[in-house]
């Protein structure tokens, strides 16, 4: 039996609670019997529109199309549309927004900074009953901006990615066993939540529900802060005053440096959007990180090896919680 997902203890919204007590199979039975009126609910095959055919949008297209859904892609660049079709990401793609007219679900996979503008520009082309969701890594300002613009909007964030971007970076199976967070509010249509949750489950994702503010605090800790720590690491390497040492360091860099520097060497636009839209939560976590770094610095300067060992031992024990 399909379930509506695993629910974070953070959430107490009536809409989410209704889904806790109402499994998705029951939604489908009600839909087949007409018991939910004209509300669009999940079906075996859906017409899914994707706005933005990059890494995330393209990877979603791959997986949903492989599962039999019909994928409709929109990008301002004709060349991107052509490549999306050629790679098998979508069934049809066009720079004409009318391509989305028949879509039952529309996924906004554009950068955070253009989400609101994109909805304002394209919404007249969408079916009035279409369900709209996004993939942005910040939720509170996005949900606040888009909820009033579309009555069936469901905030979403698939927690997966790579350092690459663009349609050529799209991958099958990117979301397998990864968290896919939905951030409904008290006003979010429960049937719309159920449809997006079902589609996320079809990706093999672990579906989680929490409120937008809690989401943003959590991702500031485990996603956004690491980007800036990693970026600072790379910058530190670049500030080495001896060119010969800097060259040697670059030559010696291996798997450890690759792991710790990956997110700091990714798409710059993503980092800028994190800093803009999740500023308060990110600054709070940077302050906490600086305290911990200073704590380690003090222990190292004092040659306090027991203190250093205690910190590293705790890290070794607790790290698996986050993996």
From TrEMBL:
Position of the signal peptide: none
Top enzyme class: oxidoreductase
Pfam families attached to this UniProt entry: PDH_C (PF20463), PDH_N (PF02153)
Record bears the keyword Oxidoreductase: yes
MF annotations from Gene Ontology: arogenate dehydrogenase (NADP+) activity; NAD+ binding; prephenate dehydrogenase (NAD+) activity; prephenate dehydrogenase (NADP+) activity
Family: Belongs to the prephenate/arogenate dehydrogenase family.
Protein name in UniProt: Arogenate dehydrogenase (NADP)
Organism: Synechococcus elongatus (strain ATCC 33912 / PCC 7942 / FACHB-805) (Anacystis nidulans R2)
């Amino acid at each position: 039996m399909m379930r509506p997902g695993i629910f974070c203890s953070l959430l107490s919204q009536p809409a989410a609670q209704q889904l806790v007590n109402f499994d998705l199979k029951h939604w489908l039975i009600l839909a087949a019997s007409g018991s939910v009126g004209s509300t669009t609910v999940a079906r075996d095959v859906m017409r899914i529109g994707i706005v933005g055919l990059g890494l995330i949008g393209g990877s979603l297209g791959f997986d949903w199309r492989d599962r039999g859904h019909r994928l409709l892609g929109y990008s301002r660049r004709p060349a991107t549309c052509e490549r999306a079709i050629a790679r098998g990401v979508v069934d049809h793609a066009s720079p004409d927004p009318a391509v989305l007219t028949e879509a039952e679900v529309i996924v906004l996979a554009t950068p955070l900074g253009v989400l609101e503008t994109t909805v304002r520009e394209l919404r007249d082309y969408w079916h009035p009953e279409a369900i709209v969701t996004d993939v942005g890594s910040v939720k509170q300002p996005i949900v606040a901006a888009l909820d009033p613009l579309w009555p069936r909007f469901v905030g979403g964030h698939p927690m997966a990615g790579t350092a690459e971007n663009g349609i050529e970076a799209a991958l099958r199976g990117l979301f397998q066993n990864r968290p896919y967070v939905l951030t409904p509010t008290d006003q979010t249509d429960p049937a719309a939540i159920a449809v997006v949750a079902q589609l996320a489950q079809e990706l093999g994702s672990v579906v989680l529900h929490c409120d937008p503010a809690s989401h943003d605090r959590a991702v500031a800790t485990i996603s956004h802060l690491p980007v800036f720590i990693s970026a600072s690491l790379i910058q530190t390497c670049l500030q080495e005053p001896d060119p010969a040492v800097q060259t040697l360091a670059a030559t010696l860099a291996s798997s450890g440096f690759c792991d710790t520097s990956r997110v700091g060497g990714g798409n710059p636009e993503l980092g800028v959007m994190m800093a803009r839209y999740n500023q308060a939560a990110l600054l709070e976590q940077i302050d906490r990180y600086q305290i911990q770094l200073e704590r380690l610095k003090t222990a190292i300067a004092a040659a306090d090896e027991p203190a250093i060992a205690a910190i590293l031992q705790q890290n070794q024990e607790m790290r698996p919680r986050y993996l």
